[in-house]
Structures are given as C-alpha cells and as structure tokens.
Amino acid sequence: MEQIKHEIKRGWYVLRAISGKEAKVKEILDGAIKNGNLGKDLFQVLIPTEKVLTVRGGKKVVKEKNLYSGYVFIEAQLTGELIHELTNTTNVIDFLRGRDKGAQPERLRESEVMRMLGTADELVEPTEDDENEFIVGETVKINEGAFIGFSGVIQEVNKERRKLKVMVKIFGRKTPLELENSQVERE
Q1: Angstrom distance (rounded) from CA 75 to CA 73
Q2: Which H or E run includes 119?
Q3: What is the DSSP annotation of 84-111?
Q4: 174 forms bridges with which residues in the sheet?
Q5: How much is the CA Rg of the chain, to the nearest whole Å?
Q6: Whose CA is closest to 79, among 48, 51, 53, 104?
Q7: How much of the chain is in helix, strand and coil states, percent to nearest 5?
Q8: How many helices (H) and strands (E) does the chain have?
C-alpha cells in the first residue's frame, strides 16, 4: 500500500474524552505543551464552558458548566506521532472521526471554530433571566424542599414570578406542585 504524502496543516480537532475528565485531559495536554513534548505540533487545548447562575440556599452561585460534555478541542498540526500520543493520553477515548472505518480525525470547519469560540466568549456574563429558561414538557428533578429527589414534568411556566407548575408522581398519583425555578434542575 502506497502512502500519499500531503502537507500537514494546522487546524482544530475534537478529542472524545471520558465525561467528567475533560479538565484532567486539558491539564495533561497543557503540561505536555509546556514541557515541549507536544509543543511543536499541539498549540491550544480548549474546553468551552458557560457560566450558569444558580440559587442554592438563598445564595446566588455561579458555576462553570461544560458546553460539550465529553469533548476536548485542540488546535494542532496532526502528525502520525501526535495522533498516537493524543489517543494514548489518560482519559482520552479517541478523536472524533469521519464515518469510514479507519478515517482520519475530522478537522473542524473555520465557521464551527469561530461559532464555538464566540459562544464561549458570549456566555461569560450570566444573567439571571437566562438562568432557567424552562419549557413546558421538560423533565426536571426537585433539588430543594419537601419533595427533594422527585422528578416531574413541567406543566406551566410563569417567567415573571419565576415559578413552575410541575406534575410529580407521589404515591402512584400525579400531583401538581408549584415550585420556584431555583428548586428544580434539568435531568
């Protein structure tokens, strides 16, 4: 089989990582860039996050949440050696690839990268209004109050009062509960 030589270009790629271990993967790769092991072909490691404002026990808390759980974005010049190093990094499953068996890692289009970077920048300032845009029919879990741990389906949303009517199954019967947005979280 003859290998085709082509110019290796710098681009953005997606690594699939074990969900919840994205930050660890970024830490390992950032260390490898600094130490010079991968620095000549790997340029940036990014985990797009958004800041979410939640209310816990009456206090407003800003938490960072991954926009793309299980994915780590890298800017690199992919060589065979680098592909091998990255896929053998702890907590990395593989590259996001095309559908063909043995396909090369798929490069992100420039527009996708710009949108991703733009989205990551836009969401830095959380606003209380965006906090809980719940919709009718959505399943939520109660995280505060007498019915903590119960799940239910939203029947009604009152944005002005920041209240929800949630249908919860209690003792085998569906019961409507009026809850504040802060008392529920998406499942």
Answers
A1: 7
A2: helix 110-122
A3: HHHHTSTTEEEE-B-SSTTPPBPBPPHH
A4: 169
A5: 22
A6: 104
A7: 20, 40, 40
A8: 4, 11
Give phi and psi for 81, each to the nearest 5. Answer: -65, -45
Q: Name the residue among 161, 145, 131, 121 with its Cα closest to residue 62.
A: 131
Structure tokens at 11: 């681009």
* C-alpha dihedral sign at 180, 181, 183, 186: positive
Give the burial class of 152: count Cβ atoms within 10 A of its Cβ; 0-12 exposed, 13-18 middle, 19 or more buried: buried
Give the angle subtended at the CA of 117 by the CAs of 66 and 185, to the nearest 5°.
Answer: 25
24 by DSSP, 3-state: which? helix
| Whether pTM exceeds 0.70 | no
More confident residue, 69 or 53: 69
Residue positions counted in the chain:
187
Rounded CA separation 40/13 (Å): 16
Q: Return the closest-CA partner of residue 76 out of 45, 116, 41, 38.
A: 41
24 falls in which pLDDT band (50, 70, 90)? Answer: very high
